Amino acid sequence: MVRYELALPEMELDEEPILVTLWLVQRGGRVWQGDPIVEVASGSVVVDLPSPGDGVLTEILVAEDEPVRVGQTLAVIEAED
To answer: Which whole-number Å values give the CA distances from 24 to 12, 20, 80, in the listed order?
Structure first.
């Protein structure tokens, strides 16, 4: 089993906090590498974060409207070998 963790990358956003605003894929949903799966926002800037690999979104670790920090794991994607 291959496990990918989607973490909040370093972004050049001037405002704090950074919030998860919308999950575009729900738990159990199939994703492919590069597909947007979650929106995060800081002030008026909204960024879609892409899936780091192909698989199934097995865990969502941060709810919508919760603040997140750089490096924090937001979700887990698992794939068969």
So the answer is: 22, 11, 22
